[in-house]
Write a structure and sequence with these properties.
Blueprint: H1 23-37, E1 42-49, E2 55-60, E3 75-77, H2 82-95, H3 105-108, H4 116-121, H5 124-128, H6 140-144, H7 149-157, H8 177-187, H9 191-200, E4 209-210, H10 212-216, E5 225-229, E6 232-235, H11 246-249, E7 251-254, H12 255-265, H13 275-282, E8 286-287, E9 301-306, E10 311-315, E11 318-327, E12 330-337, E13 342-348, H14 354-376
Antiparallel strand pairs: 1-2, 1-13, 3-7, 4-7, 5-6, 8-9, 9-10, 10-11, 11-12, 12-13
Domain Beta-lactamase-related: 35-353
InterPro entries: Beta-lactam-related, Beta-lactam/transpept-like, Beta-lactamase-like_AB/R
Keywords: Signal
Length: 378
């Protein structure tokens, strides 16, 4: 799918009808067409800008054979986009003096037999920057086999690292359970409580929450779908597995709420998250060179790093902050441009690779439009 800048396809109330300004309407229509061709059950996406009214697009149903349409309040799983919530929560607690980026593993999870030298040298910052040193996706297989959290962490504690903390990129899910342990040990509150009190409630993200039960007790939630054959989707059950590792993949949200999340990261709520905290989160910590070879992305990425809970890309010479999520039956994607104060979030109740194509083409088109505007500005 390729998005061309056609003159005028349609206009929304808040978009001007010109070849330059109507590109978002064209993009939305192209997404609708592609999703229809692939029979995607449902999706929602939003574009947030400091200069323009929010744009929200929803399509499809909450379940393939159901009648309830997806709307702005439909709740989706965020999967690994949850890591952005965990890092932002940590940044807020650090500013409050309740947490420290250099808090060692020995204090985060003192009840587990991590190797003494590693327990001293690995910190909260290493975990959130995906530079722990453990082999990538260590023991995800145990998560998916429904092993209890404590057993997975005990297994992880005996694992020999492939590099020292902070020296190589090693993406993790299981290790994020250590963050929840540390928060509970330090503050005597669980992850869900801390997230609600410090971020979700102050931001008015009333449709967001943590955990499988929080998703399924809602009257308006998107069911997960997996592909059986070409364009044939099958509804599946929601598994508890990754929900038990909530800081890694346990958050749910609606597209309306995710607009608030983007506004927070774009600096529109400095009383909740300071510019200094945002700067800390977006500072590159470890290079992620494998990202440069991903399909669709490889034509645009010039460099790639991981910050604290966020990916930091050089996308066609522009800074793009991004994270994606993928868990059984769902895809999620969020990204923003600090320079242009614009962000995009996309939620889908199907495991479709169309997500990568949509995201890359959105940002390629967006940055191209910014160049055109700069060239034509008086």
């Amino acid at each position: 799918m390729k998005y061309f800048f056609w003159l005028v396809l349609f206009c929304t109330a808040s978009l001007t009808c010109s070849a330059q300004d109507n590109w978002l309407g064209t993009f939305a229509d192209e997404v609708k067409t592609a999703a229809h061709l692939k029979a995607i059950p449902g999706y929602a996406f939003a574009v947030v800008s400091a200069e323009e009214p929010d744009q929200v697009f929803v399509q499809g149903k909450t379940r393939k054979n159901g009648k309830q349409p997806v709307n702005q309040d439909t709740v989706f799983r965020l999967a690994s986009v949850s890591k952005t919530f965990t890092s932002v929560l940590a940044a807020k607690l650090v500013e409050q003096g309740k947490l420290n980026w250099n808090l060692p593993l020995s204090q985060l999870a003192p009840d587990y037999p991590f190797k003494p030298e590693l327990a001293k040298s690995m910190t909260l910052g290493h975990i959130l920057s995906q530079s722990s040193g453990y082999m990538p996706n260590a023991y995800d297989n145990l998560i998916e086999a429904d092993y209890p959290v404590k057993r997975v962490l005990n297994e992880l504690a005996g694992l020999k690292p492939i590099c020292s903390p902070g020296s190589c990129y090693t993406y993790q899910n299981a290790l994020f359970a250590v963050v929840e342990e540390g928060l509970h040990n330090s503050l005597q509150l669980n992850y869900a409580q801390l997230l609600q009190e410090n971020l979700l409630m102050p931001l008015g993200m009333s449709r967001s929450g943590v955990g499988r039960q929080a998703l399924m007790r809602d009257e308006n939630w998107a069911r997960p779908h997996v592909l059986l054959a070409k364009n044939r989707w099958h509804e599946v059950a929601v598994n508890e597995d990754y929900y038990r590792f909530a800081p890694a993949a346990g958050v749910n949200a609606s597209i309306r709420d995710m607009r608030q999340w983007l506004k927070l990261m774009l600096g529109q709520y400095p009383h909740l998250l300071s510019s200094h905290a945002i700067e800390q989160l977006l500072t590159p910590k470890i290079r992620t060179s494998r990202e440069l070879y991903r399909r669709h992305w490889r034509d645009h990425l010039k460099d790639a790093h991981y910050g604290l809970g966020w990916r930091v890309y050089d996308f066609d010479g522009e800074l793009l902050v991004h994270h994606s999520g993928w868990v059984k039956g769902y895809r999620a994607d969020v990204g923003f441009s600090p320079k242009y104060k614009t962000g995009m979030v996309f939620l889908m109740n199907a495991e479709s690779n169309l997500m990568n194509e949509i995201t890359v083409n959105f940002w390629a088109d967006f940055f191209e439009q910014m160049k055109i505007r700069a060239q034509t500005a008086p």
